[in-house]
Amino acid sequence: MPIKIPQGLPAREVLEKENIFVMDHDRAVTQDIRPLNILILNLMPEKQKEETQLLRLLGNTPLQVNVTFMRTATHESTHTSHLHLDQFYKTFDEVKNKKYDGLIITGAPVEKLPFEKVDYWEELKEIMAWSSQAVTSTLNICWGAQAALYYHFGINKVLLPRKLSGIYSHKVLDPNEKLLRGFDDIFTAPHSRYTDLDQEELAGHPEVRTLAWSDEAGAFILIAGKGNQIMITGHFEYDTETLATEYSRDLKKKIHPDLPEHYFPEDDLSKNPVNSWRSHAHLLFSNWLNYYVYQETPYKWE
């Protein structure tokens, strides 16, 4: 089934070249079907890249998905044109009186800041509070996952001695959890962050379970309750070349980053990275949409 996206969204051309079935409003209204309504709060600076990456994963299931993009009103994006934001994005005030089957909160490059120092923190708190009543399941990614764990469960983050960047191996801790249905016992996924979760607070919290763990990167997939809040501390949505692009960007900024771990073959920059996480990324998003959104959401919101 297709994914419904705003008419004219630039990501459409990329997705169609990859044979991902997309449609706009005019085509969607001809179908007598109740689509899943998914809201995406895109906090990434380069919003169009994140749009494509997430839509690629959302558009690969048998379910029809209607996507709405949201931005913060209290932070002005400097990496995405105002025309694009005005045309394709809504603010919280425009959606807060609606119900959504699913919500995705992306990562953001603000993890070195205390949560309270982030200029849109108060707005994000309002959104997360609203989501507890108006959204069936929320998928929180990277900094979004840390923010959710801090706001909902009081689990803080800690600064790492150096940036965690690379492709890491993870173990499935609970193979019976529906979110990991079909996962291999060991799988890989990208991480790119300067902070980690406070492991003592995480281990002692009765509501949050760790479903997948990496000896190098720590907790990766976490869940609370029956899946109302799902946290992914890495970036399953990353393209093959994303970590290479970040590495080159940091070099130009003279940040002197370490080479992403387990990424370039034999740590040789002249060799192209190999994508080893794509299938599990699609599987996780498919499981989330099916078991935690479609199977749990009411047909008609009251």
Automatic annotation (TrEMBL):
The keyword Cytoplasm applies. SUPFAM superfamilies: Class I glutamine amidotransferase-like. GO terms for molecular function: homoserine O-acetyltransferase activity; homoserine O-succinyltransferase activity. It is found in: Cytoplasm. Pfam families: HTS. Its EC number is 2.3.1.31. It is an enzyme of class 2 (transferase). The keyword Amino-acid biosynthesis applies. Keywords: Acyltransferase, Amino-acid biosynthesis, Cytoplasm, Methionine biosynthesis, Transferase. The record marks 192 as: Important for substrate specificity. Its main location: cytoplasm. Pathway: Amino-acid biosynthesis; L-methionine biosynthesis via de novo pathway; O-acetyl-L-homoserine from L-homoserine: step 1/1. GO terms for cellular component: cytoplasm. Substrate binds at residues 163, 192, 249. It catalyses: L-homoserine + acetyl-CoA = O-acetyl-L-homoserine + CoA. The record marks 111 as: Important for acyl-CoA specificity. Transfers an acetyl group from acetyl-CoA to L-homoserine, forming acetyl-L-homoserine. This is Homoserine O-acetyltransferase. The gene is metA.
